[in-house]
Description:
- By secondary structure, the chain is α/β, with parallel strands linked by helices.
- It is built from 10 helices and 10 strands.
- Helix 2 links the parallel strand 2 and strand 3.
- It is globular.
- The mean pLDDT is 96.
- The structure holds N-carbamoyl-L-aspartate.
- N-carbamoyl-L-aspartate binds next to helix 2 and helix 6.
- N-carbamoyl-L-aspartate (NCD) is lined by residues 51-52, 122, 128, 131, 161-162, 221, 253-254.
Amino acid sequence: MWDRNSLVSVTQLSRSDIEEILSVASSFVREPRELCKGKILANIFFEPSTRTEKSFQSAMYRLGGQVLTHKDAGSSREKGETKEDTIRILAGYADIAVIRDDEEGQIMRYAALAGVPAINAGDGSNEHPTQSLLDAFTIMQEHGRLENLRIAFLGDLKYGRTVHSLMKVLSLFPGNEMYSITPSSLTLPAEMRFIEAGHYDVENMEKALNEIKPDVVYCTRVQKERLKGEKGSYIMHREILEALPTTCRVLHPLPRSNEINADMDSDPRVIPFKQARNGVPVRMAVISMMLKAKKELE
Length: 298
Ligand code: NCD
């Protein structure tokens, strides 16, 4: 069971923890409550972000709390201050910390250093737990279930941390069939191979999607900033979209490069912007549940 002291990996969550988070998130959609009045969240970002940072901020505001934001530009990091010291300082000014790192492998240690409940907002190519929870929330909204689904993951599955977290979440629910459709240089890394996923090369994207008949296509961007010489590109053309089942939903954590053209946004099956908005209630749920467990809230 989740100790609610940190959320650095989705492997800390059981199926029932995930169901509880999604149910609390739904309650916030129906009825936002200012549960975190007087509390401060520290958003500590060592890597760029739009959605994650701003939706954590919006979530804390909607909970009645306040937010401090650290970005390296303009901070003492430019004088050489370490990430460790930055975390200890910012977290010391707050009741809960959100940390994004450009490298994998350090987030557990950083969360422990914070001294307050800490949430991983993405660490290198490793994981992005709250993104996968908002992805799961979106799939639940669209399909009414998180089990017995056919999910095609498209793109950079080697470095795409959102995929790593979402595959782990979906593997906790029975009957899900996962498929990876990737350039051969960007397939799942060794540590993700415990996930059973059928594989197709992206060259055969159209054939793969025709065979899979997915309930969900989860597109990702090539993580250019993390490539170590690999190359890869893929574009979801309109003809491919046309051939997908009418009940299929196309998700993308964003930002997009050119994997999904903006001219497809009008298709009701393509829902990345709706998905992004779900970041607010889901992060409200995670923040309030963690602060409540610390007996910080009534
Ligand atoms: C993703 C991330 O940062 O991992 N974006 C996000 O949080 N919504 C995906 C990406 O950067 O490609």
